[in-house]
Amino acid sequence: MEETTWGEFATIFGATPRNRILEFFLETRELDFSIGDVAKETGLNRATTYNTMEELLASGLIKATRKVSGGQLYQLHTDKKEVKVLIEMFNLLLDKIAEKHKEKIIA
Prior knowledge:
Elements: H1 8-13, H2 17-27, H3 35-42, H4 46-59, E1 62-68, E2 71-76, H5 81-106
Helix pairs in contact: 2-3, 3-4
């Protein structure tokens, strides 16, 4: 994640626990993580992370992937249409950030 508690996605759409977790999974969409890892990386406590992950699982935006040492791992559900739209939006935000940095370098 960025140096701040949340990045551009959560800043624009609101720094709610749901958006902070979604942003984390959008940034790391090819990887899977435990709830403890998600809590640590997003700066949320485990209880908030667990409850929010339950909501994201129920909505189908996040999916359970595999178990490692008895712990469940989760990943962004990239096959869902809604998630594809979120990825596209996230990528547009990244392009915008890259363009800002490019302008600073050129100036």
